[in-house]
Amino acid sequence: MVTRSAIGPPTIQPSFVIALSGGSVPTHPPTASRWAPPSLRERGVPCGVPSGSGTVSARHPPPNRPRGLALVSVRRARYHHAMRHVALLTAPWREPVWALAPFRDEPYACALVTGGAGRWSYLLRAPDATMSLSDKDPADPFAALAALVGPRLPSHPEGPPFQGGVVGLGAYELGDRVEDLGLSRTDWPDLTCARYPALLAFDHHARQVIAVGRGEAEAEANARAADALAWLEVAAPERAEPAGPLCADLVASDPATYETAVAQVVARIVGGEIFQANIARAWTGRLAAGVDPFDLFVRLRAQSPAPFSAYWRLPGRALVSNSPERFLKLDAAGAIQTQPIKGTRPRGRDPVEDRALAAELLASDKDRAENLMIVDLMRNDLARVSPAGSVRAPELFKVESFANVHHLVSTVTARLAPGRGVADLLRASFPPGSITGAPKVQAMKVIAELEPPRGPYCGSLFWAGVDGAFDSSVLIRTVGLVQDGAGWRLEARAGAGIVADSDPRGERLETEAKIAALKTALTQ
């Protein structure tokens, strides 16, 4: 049982145990649901690596852990959170992409980089706990996420929005843990997370860097902030950036097969089975010899910076994302925002054509209807975890322009209900509505019939702060890379929202417009 104490973190009964493999993870107790179960790694708390498909690890697992177990036991009556104190240090501006360069090959090195008018980027490394859960692991991934984030703690009023906590990758198939549709899987886990007690925050408006450190004691927080600041002084190894194509063998899935799939979806819509479904096609290949995922990230950022660019180096894998789309944002006060994208036009060859294409998108009844369906779907998802009457759609059908495309974007807002947390919000909304369709569950069934498993594509990359704040992207314009011998194999996808009056050829051309920036970065 978890109860809130009058001052400080919650008091934990000595017998409280979280099972992360081979058992169930308790959800938040109703009387104290804003407090998650304790974090996965604390001083004196054993953490192990299970023998099954799911893993939960700490940097210093106990030497005498029995094999086959993955238990986190709280053996103290009083629980002191290892991230309860926060310290901030500042430094002159550096570009976040190049600050990451010395750590490009380090497991769990991560950069979350904004673009355009965005304010904050983050560099994270050296997590103190990691977690990977596949579909074969019986643990509830959302409860496990709540456990990893830990109890809600205060943030520094002068600090960035993200002041330490968890970065996570939910594959598209994580949604199967909500709807239980029996979806097939790729070789990517359903949920991958790492908890970071220190980070660098890059303020693009003030042009300064803020080092954030968290610790059980003030001195520990100060030391971690100082260590993070020292990351800026690490020189990147001498290495010439590749000049030619990063991928010489990029192959697209068959265009005719895709158009046939679109025609099948249109027929099912006309037949009344669904209203809309997002159907994607794939591009696969291998990085050229001597090229690594960071090279692709650098080139993408240079050619077409997006609001939710990301690089995350995982053991044997890497994720490179250039997403324009926010999935869910939650501030520490409980305000929720989602900004679904539906409706696309390519950029014009000159300013006149470009304005005409943007105006055409804004006036399109088809694209507005497609967008409005997803707005209604997201309103329904948010209503599951929001007080009655709090869900709003303050902005509909705004045209936002990116390097290669115009998009139609709407905004939905809500408030998180008392007693709910980040894990509840994700469970209610996953996978993102803009890349499934309406009704969501039936659209997911149609997608599963027509596409191979998606893996990271159309999942979400997110950060979850210990103060309750959260932000996330929809993993479109994203490349998943898997180490294969001495090289890297890759897959990227692009999709289109199919409605009753969709034209198969037009929808295929839309996928090609969406993949254009990634394709250019890989092949030119």
From TrEMBL:
InterPro entries: ADC_synthase, Anth_synth_I-like, Anth_synth_I_N, Chorismate_C, Para-NH2Bz/anthranilate_synth
GO terms, molecular function: 4-amino-4-deoxychorismate synthase activity
One of the protein's GO biological processes: L-tryptophan biosynthetic process
Keywords in alphabetical order: Aminotransferase, Transferase
Start and end residues of each Anthranilate synthase component I N-terminal domain: 116-209
EC number(s) from the headed UniProt entry: 2.6.1.85
Domain Chorismate-utilising enzyme C-terminal residues, every copy: 256-514
Pfam families membership: Anth_synt_I_N, Chorismate_bind
Domain of life of the organism encoding this protein: Bacteria
Matches recorded under NCBIfam families: PabB-clade2
PANTHER family to which the protein is assigned, alphabetical: AMINOBENZOATE/ANTHRANILATE SYNTHASE, ANTHRANILATE SYNTHASE COMPONENT 1
Name of this protein: Para-aminobenzoate synthetase component I
UniProt organism field: Caulobacter vibrioides (strain NA1000 / CB15N)
Lineage: Bacteria, Pseudomonadati, Pseudomonadota, Alphaproteobacteria, Caulobacterales
